[in-house]
């Protein structure tokens, strides 16, 4: 197990890691996430004593790294795949580390086979591709058959087959009861690999929880609803019914409605009573990427003027007009439809829901059934 308590690292006036406390437990793949400059690499370097903390401490199985006897057999780490002498052959690189750590020579050939580099064992590492360098770094981490493993961006440069192999390797190592800490920017891969997440931003702890729990805590809850395309004014009828029931609605670019404030069974009942056929009624299931973006949006150090992350932020819906009496058909002011703001970056103008089938057909590019043939 890895345990950090009040871990702090300062470089002059800059605080890279600030009072960071967490535990990485055995038997799980723990994802270590955070934006660039958040202090992930610095933290991992302090775990293996490459950097000294300004204050606080970190232990591995209850002892600082420097006090572990024959540390290579207790801890394996891939922190920089390029940290290899380019003139050495792959096997010679691993053999030198094995001899320094008292590891049998046969183990060198075993880990070369595990990472798929047995045919490249005699090649000099300066000719290695980025993916081959990653595989050699993983072989180095596995060399002492350690119980604690740290990997910083282990799939960088790997092809899809290599990424799948790393994913399976991490999960197998954890299933053997090992402690596995993996840092990565690939959210889709972390969602498939990590059981637990530690998220930091600007050197501070933002989250320490299970992956699914993290997604649930940092996701916008809403339902996607789509009326049948054959029902020309069903969307407006449905929107009106949902708004009267207390729901808040956004129109999405593909024509679906995003509904908050109402549960799915209630939406279904309201659509049925309004006589609207539904083609879609589904809960929004956030991805790890979306949840991560929400959590870290205030911790990003470098942000462009055109920030695509804004597409993942939940816009503030504009509610439809409320009627005091639900039996009342409409207010005295003629309605031209209901409004919903567009997604961020779409120009700032709200979508207008046409109030008659002809307008709706024109907006969608499909002719109205009442439009004369010669005017289509």
Whole-number average pLDDT?
Answer: 82
The count of strands amounts to: 15
- How would you characterize the largest beta sheet? 6 strands, mixed
- Report the C-alpha radius of gyration, rounded: 28 Å
Element-level helix/strand string: EEEHEEHHHEHEHEEHEHEEHEHEEH
| Low-pLDDT runs | 315-376
Please bin the fraction of helical residues: 25-40%
Cα(first) to Cα(last) distance is: 71 Å
Anisotropy-based shape: elongated
Strand content: 15-25%
The secondary-structure class comes to alpha/beta
Number of H/I helices? 11
Strand order of the largest sheet: 5-6-7-3-8-9
Provide structural commentary.
The relative contact order is 0.11. The longest helix is centred in the middle third of the chain and has 16 residues, at 160-175. The strands form four sheets. The chain has a six-stranded mixed sheet, sandwiched between helices. Mean pLDDT is 82; it is low at 315-376. It has eleven helices and 15 strands. The chain is an alpha/beta fold and 376 residues long. α7 (211-217) crosses α10.
């Amino acid at each position: 197990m890895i345990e950090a308590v009040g871990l702090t690292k300062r470089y002059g006036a800059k605080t890279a890691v600030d009072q960071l406390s967490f535990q990485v437990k055995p038997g799980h793949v723990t994802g270590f996430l955070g934006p660039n400059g958040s202090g992930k690499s610095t933290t991992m370097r302090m775990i293996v004593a490459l950097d000294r903390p300004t204050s606080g401490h970190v232990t591995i199985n209850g002892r600082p790294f420097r006090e572990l006897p024959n540390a290579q057999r207790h801890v394996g780490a891939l922190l920089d795949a390029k940290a290899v002498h380019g003139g050495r052959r792959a096997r010679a690189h691993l053999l030198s580390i094995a001899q320094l750590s008292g590891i049998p020579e046969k183990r060198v050939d075993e880990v070369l086979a595990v990472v798929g580099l047995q045919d490249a064992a005699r090649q000099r590492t300066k000719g290695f591709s980025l993916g081959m360098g990653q595989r050699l770094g993983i072989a180095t981490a596995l060399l002492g058959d350690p119980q604690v493993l740290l990997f910083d961006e282990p799939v960088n440069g790997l092809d899809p087959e290599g990424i799948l192999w790393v994913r399976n390797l991490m999960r197998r190592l954890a299933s053997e009861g090992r402690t596995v800490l993996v840092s990565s920017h690939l959210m889709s891969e972390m969602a498939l690999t990590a059981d637990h997440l530690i998220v930091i931003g600007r050197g501070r702890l933002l989250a320490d929880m299970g992956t699914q729990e993290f997604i649930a805590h940092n996701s916008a809850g809403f339902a996607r609803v789509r009326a049948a395309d054959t029902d020309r004014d069903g969307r407006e009828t449905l929107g009106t019914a949902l708004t009267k029931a207390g729901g808040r609605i956004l129109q999405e670019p593909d024509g679906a409605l995003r509904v908050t404030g109402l549960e799915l069974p209630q939406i279904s009942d309201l659509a049925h009573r309004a006589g609207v056929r539904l083609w879609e009624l589904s809960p929004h299931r956030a991805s790890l990427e979306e949840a991560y973006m929400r959590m870290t949006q205030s911790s990003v150090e470098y942000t462009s003027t055109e920030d695509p992350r804004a597409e993942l932020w939940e816009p503030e819906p504009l509610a439809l007009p409320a009627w005091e009496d639900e039996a009342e058909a409409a207010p005295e002011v003629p309605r031209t439809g209901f409004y919903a703001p567009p997604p961020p970056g779409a120009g700032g103008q709200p979508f207008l829901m046409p109030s008659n089938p002809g307008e709706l057909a024109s907006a969608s590019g499909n002719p109205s059934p009442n439009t004369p043939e010669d005017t289509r």
